[in-house]
TrEMBL record:
Pathway: Lipid metabolism; Phospholipid metabolism; phosphatidylcholine biosynthesis; phosphatidylcholine from phosphocholine: step 1/2. It comes from Perca fluviatilis (European perch). Residues 343-352 have a biased composition (Pro residues). This is choline-phosphate cytidylyltransferase. Residues 79-207 form the Cytidyltransferase-like domain. Belongs to the cytidylyltransferase family. Keywords: Coiled coil, Lipid biosynthesis, Lipid metabolism, Nucleotidyltransferase, Phospholipid biosynthesis, Phospholipid metabolism, Transferase. Residues 238-265 form a coiled coil.
Amino acid sequence: MEAQSSSGLLLSRKRRREASSREAEEGEKLGKIPRCTVGLKHPAPFADELVPADDKPYVRVSMEEAKRGTHPNRPVRVYADGIFDVFHSGHARALMQAKCLFPNTHLIVGVCSDDLTHKYKGFTVMNEDERYDAISHCRYVDEVVRNAPWTLTPEFLTKHRIDFVAHDDIPYSSAGSDDVYKHIKEAGMFAPTQRTEGISTSDIITRIVRDYDVYVRRNLQRGYTAKELNVSFINEKKYHLQERVDKVKRKVRDVEEKSKEFVQKVEEKSIDLIQKWEEKSREFIGNFLQMFGPEGALKHMLKEGKGRMLQAISPRHSPNSSPTREERSPSPTFRLPFFTKTSPPPSPPPHPSGARGYLISEDDDDDDEEDDEN
């Protein structure tokens, strides 16, 4: 009885894929969906809170009339029932398919109570009030029937003026019957939908049971007590110890990742340094060869210096002819400062050779040097 996903959705997806493939072949780009606001502002009402329908006899529409489209004041009333525990996208897709079965559809959703569900199917995660409220906030639902029956009777169908019943076509065996929808199918009131694979309430509960320790530790961290989680004192301490161990593991993992990043950065920098060192070494070797190589600048400097040294230490050649005495320019005559015109020079002291004093000049000095040489 639990409603699942739908054929209308699969057909619409198939149409979109075919249309997109055609447009891709023609080289056209798909446009985006225009922005609009279609959400409802209020939850769906409950059937027992609505004004009773008129006393006119209810005439059910046929499948052909429903597919062709009915008057706006006479929508096709489609009924879908289920448990809807832990309401998920599979439930929503099933209700969407039921809503889209006909152009003008009024979707009525029946939700079974806790007593019926625990009796025929098993214990639920959410209680009946929570499940009623979850269904009323689904955008595809127009009306909610609380405490829905497990097997649909003609009285129930007439009371709620139901035209068709939507559910997946897989036989639903329960309450001593191989298929609780058998009489609905025989009456021509059954509208099949498709299940959504990969998502169900049982799958979600299986994940929680499989990862029980993870979720218990999660809720203990969020402030729930061991008593609320029905966890013993020893298990509580075990979970706290596991949490500390996991924290240490996470820290070690973070350190390893950081160390890997550091090593990677060091390797990159070392490669850069090696490349720079190779470039500098090539430049240094080139400069060294340019200076000290066989044709380097140092060799030319040494050659130039050797030539200058040889030129400095080699004697100069004397000129072939030296100027004679007559060709020399006369040297100026120097007088002692105390010889003036007003006062006659004092008589020189007697010379041991008996020579008199005479004027001193550069010529006389030159003569004395010549005499000495002779």
